[in-house]
Amino acid sequence: MKMAQERKKRIRKGNRPFYLILLVVGLYVLWIFLSQQIKLYELTKQEEEYKNKVKALKEEAARLEEEIKQGNTPEFIEKVAREQLKMVKPNEIIYIDMQKAKYGQEKQ
């Protein structure tokens, strides 16, 4: 019986390097897995941000396309001439509120 116990101890001592190597490999695989999960999470978050940017840019492009289509209408030309070029029709009088102009609140 004593011999059997000594034999088991030798077997256990002989397997220690194997278990140590197995533990190191297991920890390495776990570390790789966790780092890949973190990277995947970051890339997924970045993908969502890019999708939102693409959506916003598509909406802006659609709005600009609509503005281009309206660019040749007389109403749009008049609007641009009045608002951006400060043009007026003949015999038209423009009133400026001096209170707003005094405090810099006049529309440019």
From TrEMBL:
- What's an example GO cellular component term for this entry? plasma membrane
What species is given as this protein's source?
Answer: Thermotalea metallivorans
Q: Which residues form a coiled coil?
A: 40-67
Q: Which residues form the signal peptide?
A: none
Q: Which InterPro entries does the record associate with it? A: Cell_div_FtsL, FtsL/DivIC
| Pfam families in UniProt | DivIC
User: Could you tell me the Gene Ontology terms of the biological process aspect for this record?
Assistant: cell division
Kindly list the residue ranges recorded as spanning the membrane: 16-34
Chief location of this protein within or outside the cell: membrane
Subcellular localization is given as: Cell membrane
Question: How is this protein named in the record?
Answer: Cell division protein FtsL
